[in-house]
User: Fold this.
Amino acid sequence: MELNHIALTVTNHQEITNFYQDILGFQTMRVFDLKEELSEKIFGISVDVAIAVLTRDELSLEIFISDTPIKHGFEHICLNVEKRDEIIRKAKAMNYKVVSVDRGSYDLVFIKDKNGNLFELKEKR
Assistant:
């Protein structure tokens, strides 16, 4: 298992430059919008939201830019795992919430622990 990315939320777009780039030294790789429909399916939050993908060395951050603070919002940890289907099966058998979204050529899978922490799982290649 290896860390793929960490997702955080900021309420001020300028933080991307001021904190993550100027202080921590991350570079913005791309910025895109997560549409309301997909945001609702994955996170249970009905909003369009901008996402900035930042990298430094081997670490990648997804910074969700929300106009208002959101408690238990978009924050998650993404892990690259082997045998993802087996992990999903175990999680479901133990009554953990699993959200799977078909995106055509791939799918997104999120598992929430009993404390509300969200984990995205990607098959390790």
In short: The chain has one domain: 2-123. The radius of gyration is 15 Å. The longest strand covers residues 2-10.
